[in-house]
Amino acid sequence: MICILIRGFLSVKTRLGEFMSSQGTNYPPGYYLAGFTVVRIPKSAVLSVKSCWLSEHIPFELHGLNAQLGLSFALYSEFLRGGSSRWYGYLRSLPSSVDLPVFWAYDQPSAHGRGGGSGIVGALTGNYDHDDPMLWLHGTEVLRRLNERNRKGLRLPEAIDLYYQDHVLPVLKRPDIRHLLEQEPALNGFRHAFGLVSSRAFLLDVYHGLAMTPIADVFNHVVENHVHIQSDFYVCSECGSLRECEHDDAHHDSTLKLNGETSDQDFFYEMVSNADIAPNEEIFNTYGEKLSNAELLIQYGFILDSNESDVVHFDLAEITSLFASTPNGAVNPLPFSTWRRRDGRISFQLWKLLLQLLVSRGNRTKATEHWSMLGSLSKEELIEAAVTQIHVERKLHGNGPDDQELESSNVHESLWTQVLLEMARVVVRLCETKKETIGHPVYVGQDFGEILDSVPVDRQRLRLAVSVAMSECSILDSCKFAWMDVIDVLTSDDDVIE
């Protein structure tokens, strides 16, 4: 079931097939091909900073956190208008709560008010659901992202509250505005608006920017989606026109269309199918093809059972702590301090950094003359190390080094295999150390799967948090076991390691 727009507002619900049939399509009943326009959404129906009743009081930003905060202000101002809002019907259709981790900490009760129980089951079925989820997120990608600070040194919860105090309240308290509100402003109301924006808004074009888009926001997420929103992004930033208009600069190249016959794209945004839709099949959009579960939980409040985009980051301190000493100048400054791995593999950045640290630490005793004295390896040295690893991986998968070009390109392979062996041991330790920091401190090392099974289905926050911790530990285990296999190959071959 979906909703259709009547004069730009949400109205009666109808079956997709009935709606499409009413449009006079010639497609087989109940089956729709890729490229079909599922829904047209009038541009006049979207709620944005530009279209809200307080548009002249809200700074416009095209994207980023300030765009989210500005749209939250616009949306909240319409909520406060109540029945006087143009979007009253749409606002009533929105969920009354959006449970995002950014707000979980606000709901934690006093430690003195905890429920009873003992052991894992007792602890996880007490009356303190709002306390434990944040503890279970300890060491995870979710908490790492929530703790990131903006240029003003603020975490996301702090930035939301400060924006409300500095930008929202001063406007809403103005006498000429306050008497038009049907409700008193409250911080929790603005937080609710931010949650709706985070989980439902679309970046439409350079005029509306980020906007609440009726109908488009009812489709659930999968990576292999059926539909996507389609719009011309480059419209007039002053009036939203898709055609040449009075705001055009005659001395500036314009991306707008020449005046002429109009089309649906002048007045509508469209949800267009990019895959065939079978009868009685739920229609999915995608919120991003490469979003990890951490990103999905923070922004939308849910996770996928299996997500190929999940990653675990290691910061520089976690990596260098495994080395007794790191010579000055051994590691060149890098533009970021975290490294990503997934599917049992480590990223090239982490591989290169470990290589530099190991070489600089003294793993070149047999070939000092062949290696750079500093940890910054040459291109030729990196190629030699990579070729050695390719040979090891071929042996690991039962394929010998049959490429003559690779064979002849690495004259120092026996030396690099020693470094690779030490790298494998470091990666194993790195995964083990990282895993000890993930999840509730009381239950480190225990089976998170069994713990998850003990959590009641109605304890959604707790289930999400435990699931995230369990998934990231699983990723680390995959990486650990993959590199343990490398160790086995290198130590079982007398010709490889002397």
Automatic annotation (TrEMBL):
- Name the residues that span the membrane: none
CDD domains, per database record: SET_LSMT
Entry-linked InterPro entries:
SET_dom_sf (IPR046341), SETD3_SETD6_MTase (IPR050600)
Tell me a GO cellular component. nucleus
One GO MF term attached to the UniProt entry: protein-lysine N-methyltransferase activity
Q: What is this protein called?
A: SET domain-containing protein
- Which organism is this protein's natural source? Leucocoprinus birnbaumii
Q: What are the leading ranks of the lineage?
A: Eukaryota, Fungi, Dikarya, Basidiomycota, Agaricomycotina
